[in-house]
Design a protein that fits this description.
Shape: rod-shaped
Number of strands: 3
Order of helices and strands: HHEEE
Largest sheet: 3 strands, antiparallel
Strand content: 5-15%
Strand order of the largest sheet: 1-2-3
Distance between the termini: 56 Å
Radius of gyration: 36 Å
Structural class: mainly alpha
Length: 133
Amino acid sequence: MIGKILLNIGVVILFIIGFFLICSGVVNLIGTLSPNANPIYLRNALGFGAAGLVLLGCSVGLMLAATSRRELKTSQEVTLKIDLPGKTEFSQFTCRNCGGALKPENIKATGGISMVECPFCGTTYQLTEEPVW
């Protein structure tokens, strides 16, 4: 946010300086039209005009940089560690459709819901936990 504000301030400053340099170049160019004009006016006119055009070009470039939107592509990998209370035994986990043996890689958390995808039959279903009474 602050970077864009600084770019906009730079655009305004460069534009104002460039505008005044071009105006000075025009005044010096008008000065060369008089019959007893000093030849240095033409050199000043060309120098001021060129410098003004360069600064105006820089201000346009900064303006484009300030208004462009760049999307930051970020990815985040989350690891969930669960501390199970007491003595816990693990049993073989099988697909409820075909009975195929499932591995932990077949369980994906989507939006806070545990989903199981069977690699054998392709069935996808929500993992439910049966209460132990």
